[in-house]
Amino acid sequence: MEENETRNFVVRDKNGKEHGVFTGKQPRQAALKVANRGKGTKSKPETIRLRERGTNKVHVFKGWKDKVDAPKNKPEWMPDKINKPFVKKQGIEKLEKA
Fold first, then answer.
1. pLDDT reported for residue 15
2. Which helix (DSSP H) or strand (DSSP E) does residue 28 occupy?
3. Global pTM?
4. Beta 7-12 vs 18-24: how paired, if at all?
5. How far apart are CA 70 and CA 86, in angstroms?
6. Within 13 A of 55's CA, how many CA atoms are on the CB side?
7. Which of 22, 71, 79, 80 could be 30's S-S partner, Cβ–Cβ 3.0 to 4.6 Å?
8. CB crowding 34-66: b at 16 or more within 10 Å, else e
9. Which contacts of 76-84 are long-range, i.e. CB under 8 A and separated by 24 or more positions?
């Protein structure tokens, strides 16, 4: 696989149901996108499971978002406070082949 190729990651819930596809060059990039839409907080992060399309690897992250000040050079339309996602990799799980 090429270095700069975007990959697709499917979000899995705890029951193994898959919904929503996020893209990124790395699993972390896709996890940040999921965390930004999620409801996790720093004190109660949510578990994010991303299965890489075409593989049986599931990347597991803890993710949350915080309200932070917008950058000084922000565009005019951007609010003063923005959501910033955070993720921590927990590991990789292998799915059993069906």
1. 85
2. helix 27-37
3. 0.86
4. antiparallel
5. 16
6. 15
7. 22
8. bbbebebeeeebeebbbbbeeeeebbbbbbbbe
9. 83/36
